[in-house]
Amino acid sequence: LLSRKKGTKIPSKRKQNASIITSELSYKNLLKSEQENWNDISARYKAMTERIKEKLEELHNKYAFNSGSPRIRFGENVYFEENGCMFLSKADDGEGNVDILFSTEDLGFSDAFIQRIRISPDQRYMAISLKTENSEEATCFIMKLGHFPVVEKVIPSVFSFEWATNDVLYYTSQKNLKCQNVFMTTFTNQKHTKLVYTEQDARFFVDIYCTKDRRFLTINSNSKTTSEVWLVDCRHPFKLPALVQARTKGVIYHIEHRNDELYILTTYGEPAEYKLMKAPVASSGMENWQLVYALEKKTKLVDLEIFSDHCIMFLKNAGHLYLNVISFVSHSVQSIKLPTWACEFELESHPEHNTSTCYFQLTSPVHPPKRFAYSFKENNLIEQAVQEVPIITNCHTTRLLAKSKDETLVPITVFHNMNSKELHRKPLLVHVYGAYGIDLNMSFKEEKLMLIEEGWILAYCHVRGGGELGLSWHKDGCQHNKLKGLHDLKACIMLLHELGFSQPKYTALAAASAGGVLAGALCNTDPELIRAMVLQAPFVDVLNTMMKTHLPLTIEEQEEWGNPLADEKCMKYIKSYCPYQNIKPQCYPSVFITAYENDQRIPLTGVLRYVQKLRKAALDHASGTNKGNWIPNIILDIQTTGSHCDSSWEDSLNEVARHLAFLNKELE
């Protein structure tokens, strides 16, 4: 975790150990002093935190049934999980008879949650992965189903797994956040396990997928910009995997299969956005890829499902969601608009290949998931009725475009209460992420609904570096374009204030993980735009982290941030926006940071350093001016449980309640 400063000469081993011990001691002392500091401060938020928790629990119980766990259909059998128990029911059983198969407690993992479920084609075996919140790694249990399910095998540190046949399972092992080995294990009379594939390049991560028609397993090796896929023929699971197309720098591709043809979702060709192509299984090289459908500009492909005669694309354009249904029979493409409030798709797992209906859920930060079905026969969208909980109708959704420094238009999604008067005096919570081509998370959260009910305005800024407008939107905000994301964020907040959505003294900024880069950078460049900021496991020390190649993610992250060790220009550029590097004595907003002691992705040392430096700069500024000396609250709450942005409902409830209590106090 703590590397020595470069260039210090170490004459003896003993001295080297001494320097490491002192840095470890100072780290432990810092940790301790921050924990004591938080214990002293937390009392002032306690009463409000408890009040908020009660409200959130009430909302959670009210809407919990909507976010029911995914159901897996196998003919007339339906498997589903609830509260750590695995159930089996019959699809057409009106009586609601349900068998309990087993619980996580039976497996000795009472505090774990089920992450992934895969059932063998003949339904004799079920493989599940269990994960506790303190670890990034999951444990895979293979259960032999029957009247009394029994544990057949336990495999530690597993990431993905799929059944090739009734009794052959392929899986990837995970170590230090990396997945590079694929194994095959058999449950026949001769049980054996063997290594099938190893990825040599540290920038690549391997996972396994089963095509919808169960004809092939795909071994997918992906870096942030390039992919390579190998096929395992499920009819001959012991044969060596076959290469589809050797990795080509900058070309990403994913594979599905239908009628002896591979359907290839890829960035190959111009423009470098996703296209659907196809090729014969026997000659799958790039030179044989034929275009089936190309996406329109500035469109984000969220997901794709292939059925026996149709393909559904789940798409996003400037915040609006829609479906494209491609018929393989008539070669027609039909576009279906979805309700304007919808911001996020949630697909149901494992729909059957030859079904005539595709089910999915739509949601937004303030709309609990609602189930919809698209019927291929009728060519129409059907809203599924559920137990009725009155869904808030007094929430208004607005989509805006802010003009950034280089004239690029940046989408913003805004939610506010329709009954709110004088919006310029209401508190505003701005959300940002802007990295890895990942969209800002806009699925339902109880606390967002609570804020709307209390008159807050919520704004989601879809800045460059994220994926909201397709692959070029990401490219335009990574490596030597990172500052564009910062300019976008500034433009978004300024437009919101101009249009009368709140004002700086009632504005707060929220970000998690890599979103901390842009949020922390804005705090340095334009602190007067916001009054408070809440960060969860933030990445705020970009330069130091990217200089340490021994950290698990540094090498693969070079495609996002650049490589400062090999490139002087890149080092200067990172230095120009890195939140930690650019702290200076000035009037900062108040900041609340939640970090995790066990976080493998964001080293705690960087967060500790950032907080120390920020406090000192704020104090230096306050002591050097006579302006009433407003000193911001800079608070670090270090969680001993939980891993990177991944907590149980109870822990995240506590975190969220503390963040909101802090914001309510800061924005009065």
TrEMBL record:
Function, as annotated: Serine peptidase whose precise substrate specificity remains unclear. Does not cleave peptides after a arginine or lysine residue. Regulates trans-Golgi network morphology and sorting by regulating the membrane binding of the AP-1 complex. May play a role in the regulation of synaptic vesicle exocytosis.
Family the UniProt entry places it in: Belongs to the peptidase S9A family.
Residue span, Peptidase S9 prolyl oligopeptidase catalytic domain: 443-667
Keyword Calcium: no
Gene3D superfamilies from the UniProt entry: alpha/beta hydrolase, Prolyl oligopeptidase, N-terminal domain
Organism: Chlamydotis macqueenii
A GO CC term assigned to this protein in UniProt: cytoskeleton
Predominant localisation class: cytoplasm
UniProtKB keywords: Cytoplasm, Hydrolase, Protease, Serine protease
Name used for this protein in its record: Prolyl endopeptidase
E.C. designation(s): 3.4.21.-
A GO BP annotation: proteolysis
InterPro entries, per database record: AB_hydrolase_fold, Pept_S9A_N, Peptidase_S9_cat, Peptidase_S9A, Serine_Peptidase_S9A
MF GO annotations: serine-type endopeptidase activity
Start and end residues of each Peptidase S9A N-terminal domain: 31-380
Compartments (UniProt record): Cytoplasm, Cytosol
Domain of life: Eukaryota
SUPFAM superfamilies noted in UniProt: alpha/beta-Hydrolases, Peptidase/esterase 'gauge' domain
Keyword Hydrolase recorded: yes
Pfam families, per the entry: Peptidase_S9 (PF00326), Peptidase_S9_N (PF02897)
